[in-house]
Predict the 3D structure of the following.
Amino acid sequence: MKKLAMLTGGGDCPGLNAVIRAVVRRSHALGYDILGIKNGWAGLIHGFVEPLTDFSVTGILPRGGTILGTSRTNPFKQIEHIQKLKANWQKYGLSSLIAVGGEDTLGVAHRLFTQEGYPIVGVPKTIDNDLAGTDYTFGFDTAVQIVTEAIDRLHTTAESHKRVMVVEVMGRNSGWIAAYSGMAGGGDCILVPEIKFNMDEVCALIRKRIDRGREFAIVVVAEGAAPADSDQPITKGGHMDEFGHAQLGGIGDWLGHQIEQRTGIETRVTVLGHVQRGGTPTAFDRVLATRFGLKAVELVREKQFGYMASLRGTDIVAAPLEEALVQKLLDPKVFGDASVFFG
Ligand code: F6P
């Protein structure tokens, strides 16, 4: 009997449990045994595993997070970790692995496949929607929905107090979440990492709006956005993960202070943080995650290793894993559409 394993790695994301459920149900229907690796690559290094049964995945479709746990562990950081990973692969008698993750987790999967010949397929995920190999990643729609609801709430209090509200959102080095939620929530100014901003222009947009008789403004800023005179995004105390990514956050407070000082308008800052990643996935994300899970098992069955499930238009297709390693920046056309409503 084939012994398939699966793991979820990197930042968690709404829809991961829908992938796990789809993989388990489809694998069992095909007669495969399936082993859950706990906490991303760390589980394969240290031997944290559990068999996944139909019972394990009952009722998890609407649940956020991942029942397998996750981590940002990079096995290539230490040679002995790769050795342990290989020994455990042998020990558990694995015939193939489905890795669900973003650029980092799928980067490890790609390296294990190309350099070591391990039969691995991938499923792309991230709330940031910044992976080139797929039109959308699941988790993004849910994050946009959460931010949009927050902006709607901030509107009413902003209007009552005649304040500027700055909303800092996630997205790492891409502005997908900021642009989509800013457009959906009617943001008066959206700042994204792809386009450096100028404080004079930001303040001019706010004043233009006030001059139109609207005495409040909503500014949506992506955590990776930076002013034109800065060559680095603002980070929180320099924490780096094992893949070399700095922890972002702090631009909202900086921006709020600048706006208040320069315009004299009372300004408040909301940092949505991990609320954007938690809780139940939207229907769109559940469907996309489920279809990705089914496709991953099909890739295993057809021995299409080194590939991942990908959305192209409305079709789920196979895409080479290396496509997930290329960053997909915000489409300038989307930003252009959002900017029609600035000021
Ligand atoms: O990549 C997903 C993401 O939520 C980014 O938007 C954010 O910068 C990062 O992860 C936060 O990571 P952590 O959960 O380690 O703080």
About this structure: Residues 199 and 227 are 7 Å apart (CA to CA). Residues 11, 126-128, 170-172, 223, 247-248, 277 surround 6-O-phosphono-beta-D-fructofuranose (CB under 6 Å). The chain has a mean pLDDT of 96. The longest helix spans residues 140-161.
